[in-house]
Amino acid sequence: MENNKRILKQLKELERLSSNMRLAAEKWSNPWQTLISTILSARTRDEITIPIANKLFEKYPTVKSLAKGKVKNIQKIIRPINFYKTKSKNIIKCAKILAKKYNGNPPHDFERLLELPGVGRKTANVFLSEMGKDTIGIDTHVSYLSQKLSWTKNKNPEKIEEDLKRLFPKYYWKKINPILVRFGKTYTSRRKKDEILKRLKR
């Protein structure tokens, strides 16, 4: 019980210390936009992803219009994003499946999400948490901070996810990724970050 109080206190302190920046999966008007933006954000900073996703959705305002988009046109728009060639193909394929099979609405089911092009475990979990589901998306920020705070000894994302689910009450699961990502992006200096984490472990 004492350990639970300590880790919840650490999580709340990380939230308090972080700036309230928008993340790539947040504040879209449609769930399909949330999913596509999350696909685009893989290995790309949110501050690059968000304006690019905005341009993409201005050009293609519906799933059906995105599904009919040409790869070369989408590549032009999302070029500043890492792996833009692969992602261009994936988001068109994904949009086609969403339009045809799901009436434009991404499934709120983990296994079905994994069947969509460009959607891996982290993307599926981040999307589901944005939809209000109790999931934890494990990215580089979550992995690094969880290890530094001794919440896990694992480096494998799936095992980290399991450890955090055992450690935190379900209510906090969907909060973990946004809090840790914001903290990681607020303190870009590894030295400063580690100083704060060391203090939190006392």
Features:
Endonuclease Iii, domain 2, mainly alpha, Endonuclease III, domain 1, 202 residues
What do these coordinates show?
By secondary structure, the chain is mainly alpha-helical. It has two domains: 2-21 and 135-201, Orthogonal Bundle (Endonuclease Iii, domain 2); 31-130, Endonuclease III, domain 1, CATH 1.10.340.30. It has twelve helices and no strands. It has helices at residues 2-17, 31-41, 46-59, 63-67, 71-78, 84-101, 110-114, 121-130, 140-148, 157-167, 173-186, 190-201. Helix 2 (31-41) packs across helix 3. The longest helix has 18 residues, at 84-101. The protein is globular, with a radius of gyration of 18 Å. It starts with a helix and ends with a helix. The mean pLDDT is 96.
| Classification by helices and strands | mainly alpha
Mean pLDDT across residues: 96
In terms of per-residue confidence, which ranges show pLDDT below 50 for 5 or more consecutive residues? Answer: none
The H-level CATH homologous superfamily of the largest domain, spelled out, is Hypothetical protein, domain 2
**CATH class membership of the largest domain:** Mainly Alpha
Q: Specify the oligomeric state.
A: single chain
CATH architecture of the largest domain: Orthogonal Bundle
The total count of helices amounts to: 12
The CA-CA distance between the termini, in Å, is 17 Å
Short description:
This protein has helices at residues 2-17, 31-41, 46-59, 63-67, 71-78, 84-101, 110-114, 121-130, 140-148, 157-167, 173-186, 190-201. With 202 residues, the chain is mainly alpha-helical.
